Amino acid sequence: MKKIKLLQQLTNEGVVAVLRGETPEEVVEMAEQAIAGGIKVIEVTMTVPFALQAIEKLAKKYTSSTQDPSKYAIIGVGTVLDPETARVGILSGAKFVVGPALNPDTITLCNRYRVPVMPGVMTIQEIQRALELGVDIVKLFPGNLYSPSTIKAIKGPLPQANVMPTGGVSLDNLADWIKSGAVAVGIGSDLTTEAVKTGNYSLVAQKAAQYIEAYRAAKG
Predict the structure, then answer these.
(1) Which of 90, 193, 79 minimizes the C-alpha distance to 142?
(2) 163: which strand partners?
(3) How far is CA 90 from CA 62, 99, 114, 158, 220, in A?
């Protein structure tokens, strides 16, 4: 039931902040600003040096329980290439796992521990395989290689597939992705680039608020 509840929360929130940085401290700052701006689902990628430190700190500060809104956020681990990385991410407090590609062993491990896993896919064959392995949400990646109409095409033969585009999603096209059937979207560099360039991380909160506003408008 815990996994089902988390999946419901992920899709209800609808926007996932995919965070990369030079240090764990930088990523924690980005995450805190994104959460303050309204994005409550945070994916810390394993490309960040000492990423587990950031995940652990955020997981201790925030909880996936909605009983305390001031501390509510769902922290996950991304760029997971193998089950070993997934497991250490989970042990560090990650509530969900995201990969850039379809790795059956990673999916098996996450299913064992009842942790939502979202592997990256590019083809109908990969999506079908993910469904057969028990995946609930697939990550269409890199999203900038596709148009929002791709989701409608996918749902022709696979209407049961839950698709989350990541990469290339912007304020300009978010509504198109949602209206085409995306269950959520992953937001990467567009959320943080300006803040990193200027050193003003409050810009992350401002951009996060814009994304949440755009998402809610798209959902009606």
Answers:
(1) 79
(2) 138
(3) 15, 14, 11, 30, 34
User: Residue 33 has which token pair?
Assistant: 């600003």
Closest CA to 44 of 213, 180, 186, 160: 186
Q: Encode pLDDT of 1-32 as tens digits.
A: 799 999 999 999 999 999 999 999 999 999 99
In sequence order, the 6+-apart residues with CB closer than 8 A to the CB of 166 are 16, 18, 98, 120, 139, 140, 141, 142, 143, 185, 186, 188
Residue corresponding to tokens 């930088």:
26
Fold entry, domain 2-215: TIM Barrel (3.20.20)
Q: Which residues, 6+ apart, have CB-to-CB distance to 190 below 8 Å?
A: 169, 170, 171, 207
Amino acid present at 27: V
For 140-173, the pLDDT digits (tens) are 999 999 999 999 999 999 999 999 999 999 999 9
Domain boundaries, the chain: 2-215
Pairwise CA distance, residues 205 & 180, whole Å: 27
Cβ–Cβ under 8 Å, residues 135 and 109: no
Range 116-129 average pLDDT: 98
pTM greater than the 0.85 cutoff: yes
Q: Environment class of residue 217 by beta-carbon count within 10 Å: exposed (0-12), middle (13-18) or buried (19+)?
A: exposed
